């Protein structure tokens, strides 16, 4: 973390979990904990259908609501899709783009991720762009090459003044939902590499304003160590974000001056 230049962000990714009632209860429980979090932003990325209930419950709190996906077109014949304008209208502030589960299950490519990032920025949303390698890639020593490429393509056409609304989440696929976590050094190394790509493309000043998150089995016991890395500015948290108490503990670990 480096509070001098950028925000710390703790974002929960509920994936396909929790109904509207559970969302309401969760937010009521998290509210007092989030209120203490002066030094970090708190985001909950909830299923589409839970957005209205979550936005209502989070009104007047420090908790921002995010979505887990969006379409890149503004409207049209795209059955089953949701546009960024619709999300913004519903009160959504952040949107996860290019999560590895969508890359795997829905065939999302880096080019599609780029189109969605541009659409999200156009609609005034804050994209959380997910990048990360498989175990095979890591074993073959191509992690940094892959992540560099993913970040470059995802940001194609993004202007310097839009970059401050962008968040990047490094999520090694082998660590997502597996209980295996990247070591702080691994997370820090990839975070540093992402920062370097940003620096080359946008200059040092813009690059240091971007929050780079780590995701992949982040939990109450490993959060503080991961967040101690200078280029780990928060977390994108799946499993441990489904329980308000454990999520609150991670916020506490991130809320350091
Ligand atoms: P996990 O998920 O914390 O359950 O590993 C993280 C994510 O997929 O964003």
Explain the overall architecture.
With 257 residues, the protein is α/β, with parallel strands linked by helices. The chain has one domain (8-254): Alpha-Beta Barrel (TIM Barrel). The protein is 42% helix and 16% strand. It contains eleven helices and eight strands. The protein has helices at residues 20-36, 51-58, 84-89, 100-105, 110-122, 135-139, 143-154, 184-202, 204-208, 223-227, 244-254; strands at residues 8-13, 40-45, 63-67, 94-97, 126-131, 167-170, 211-215, 234-237. The chain has an eight-stranded parallel barrel with strand order 1-2-3-4-5-6-7-8, surrounded by six helices. β3, α3 and β4 (94-97) form a beta-alpha-beta unit. α1 (20-36) runs parallel beside α11 (244-254) and α7 (143-154) packs across α8. The longest helix has 19 residues, at 184-202. The model has no long low-confidence stretch (mean pLDDT 96). Bound molecules: 2-phosphoglycolic acid (PGA). 2-phosphoglycolic acid binds at residues 13, 171, 176-177, 215-218, 236-240.
Topology, element by element:
Layout: E1 8-13, H1 20-36, E2 40-45, H2 51-58, E3 63-67, H3 84-89, E4 94-97, H4 100-105, H5 110-122, E5 126-131, H6 135-139, H7 143-154, E6 167-170, H8 184-202, H9 204-208, E7 211-215, H10 223-227, E8 234-237, H11 244-254
Parallel strand pairs: 1-2, 1-8, 2-3, 3-4, 4-5, 5-6, 6-7, 7-8
């Amino acid at each position: 973390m480096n509070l001098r230049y950028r925000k710390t962000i703790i974002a929960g990714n509920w994936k396909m979990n929790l109904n509207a009632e559970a969302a309401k209860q969760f937010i009521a429980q998290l509210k007092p904990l989030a209120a203490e979090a002066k030094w970090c932003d708190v985001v909950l990325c909830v299923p589409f259908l839970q957005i209205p209930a979550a936005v209502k419950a989070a009104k007047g709190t420090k908790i921002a609501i995010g979505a887990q996906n969006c379409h890149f077109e503004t409207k049209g014949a795209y059955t089953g899709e949701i546009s960024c304008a619709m999300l913004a209208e519903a009160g959504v502030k952040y949107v996860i783009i290019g999560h590895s589960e969508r890359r795997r299950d829905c065939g999302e490519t880096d080019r599609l991720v780029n189109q969605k990032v541009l659409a999200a920025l156009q609609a005034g949303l804050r994209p959380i762009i997910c990048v990360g390698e498989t175990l095979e890639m890591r074993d073959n020593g191509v992690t940094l090459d892959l992540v560099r490429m993913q970040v470059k393509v995802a940001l194609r056409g993004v202007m310097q003044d839009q970059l401050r609304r962008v968040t990047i989440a490094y999520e090694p696929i082998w660590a997502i939902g597996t209980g295996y976590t990247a070591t702080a050094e691994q997370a820090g190394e990839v975070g540093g590499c992402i920062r370097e790509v940003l620096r080359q493309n946008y200059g040092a000043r813009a690059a240091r304003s971007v929050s780079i998150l780590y995701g992949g089995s982040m939990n109450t016991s490993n959060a503080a160590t991961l967040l101690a890395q200078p280029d780990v500015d928060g977390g994108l948290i799946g499993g441990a974000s489904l329980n308000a108490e454990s999520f609150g503990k991670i916020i506490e670990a991130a809320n350091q001056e």
